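[SOLVED] Need 3D model of a two-part complex

Original post:
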Amino acid sequence: MSSDTATSTGPVPTVFVPSSEALATVLAPSTRPPRPSPLSASLTFSWRALLKIKHVPEQLFDVTAFPIIMVLMFTYLFGGALADSPRDYLQFFLPGIMVTSVVMITMYTGVGLNTDIEKGVFDRFRTLPVWRPAALVGMIVGDVLRYVLAALVILTVGLVLGFRPDGGVPGVLAGIGLLVVFSFAFSWVWTFFGLVLRSEKSVMGASMMVLFPLTFLSNVFVDPSTMPGWLQAFVKANPITHLVSSVRAAMAGTTDASAMMWIVLWSAAFIVVFGTLTMYRYNRR
Amino acid sequence: MSRRTTGPAIEAEGLTRSFGETRALAGLDLKVPAGAVYGLLGPNGAGKTTAVRVLATLLRPDGGQARVFGHDVVAAADAVRARVSLTGQYASVDEDLTGVENLVLLGRLLGLTKSAARQRAEQLLAAFGLTEAAGRQVKKYSGGMRRRVDIAASILNTPDLLFLDEPTTGLDPRSRNQVWEIVRAVVAHGTTVLLTTQYLDEADKLASRIAVVDHGRVIAEGSPGELKSSVGSGTVHLRLRDADQRPEAERLLQATLGGPVQVEADAVAITARVGGDGSELDASAQAARALGELSRAGIMVDDFSLGQPSLDEVFLALTDRPAVPVTDERDELEAAR
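Solution:
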């Protein structure tokens, strides 16, 4: 305690004495409002996510510093070797590293849920008569803002280093849009992990096991045509490859229709399969 | 409002629930009448928290069934949720958010408009003496304030049934009294309260009926008075002038009263239950006779009182062990998650 609390000059702390009149006012039965719509409940939960960012701004570190490091590191590490210069490499590489960074950040959704649900507040949420997935949807919508922020940070660093997308502003926005849609869907994988696994550490560990092969064994860093056949087969089936192809195309001002179709299918599949599994676990706890 | 029903608030039959090897609920039966405080009394690890979590729709039972205001807790969980609120053992509010943010958040989730939620939050904070702390994060609150904002969150929509899981554990006596006052006010306005506690005096002071829970089932049920009289008609508390005379006094009390005699930590204090020795005399006559015997034996008594047995003694009589923690309830809570 600070020393000034001991001096007698400060205001005398008032002791709370419950007053029956005041309690009577708040306890008077009132008509219950209609229950909120699923959308309204989800938005209220995403407001909670925003409030948490406001009160604990340090949590934005992983959507700002981490992406910057990723871009700088790989651009200068591979740039000279894989292309004529880091600047040339960046034209190919920036959409890929943007996808890699944002997809890696999605794992914090699972870690966050795992720590959050251990606290009593989720008990209260789960005893509310609201649309069941709202708490999780709201949480992921809050995280989507973090994904957008990370994408914008990477874009800014890229532009400073010399990334010049042919697609212009609409192309870049379309690319980020695709990435965000996919990331929203992909986050449901981590909510399931967050509910099934016991600790924050195991969620992290499991997420890394999935994310490293998924992001590196793709077309993010190099053209897959130099890889052995069996690896090419994996890379071609990898949703990250499709995502990178469609984001790259959008930012270059073109459209990769087949990659785009795959992304829509993958996103729908993640939501249907892992959304269902997540809600099953959420209700069963 | 006709929201309140006349039937029982809770009916549970044969609830079971295991966590691995641990049987947290082993056939729990419960019938809680509406409109009063009902106490679930038991030591740590008795299954109280698990019972509350099942009844509040947080946990599915392995077997048995339970209804809250006639709605099945599994099949009609949503209908149950519309009528209940829960204040868990650990803070059921978001500690990163401020007091007012927590209440506005819940108000919005219960369907209030932004301005109505704001207004309701301010009204509640004022009634709970938290207006000054409204803008501070809950993690910076004292234990008592945290409890109060938690209960405020639970009565935001004046529920018909309020679960309070060990509401005063870890609170100082003053904060404890504040919580008791709030609980009394809540019940006076027609909300049924299911209160779990390991404090016997708390159940005695607040609850109109009590179920004693041990090893996942109810081992006794009744009003505090009924429970006390079930173990004997009364208890005699004595303080002797001379500690050396205590063994002799113990022997005499045992012989005349017929109930178990307990020596206290204080070397001159002794407690004896007026037992069921088939005697026709009532408790006061038996006590008078015992006092006479002591006097004849030359044992000087400085202080004498006759009262109902305490719930502590009830517990001892029911379980053959005092109501002290057997396991850490955190284990049960962890397991319940």
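Edit: Chain B has a mean pLDDT of 86.
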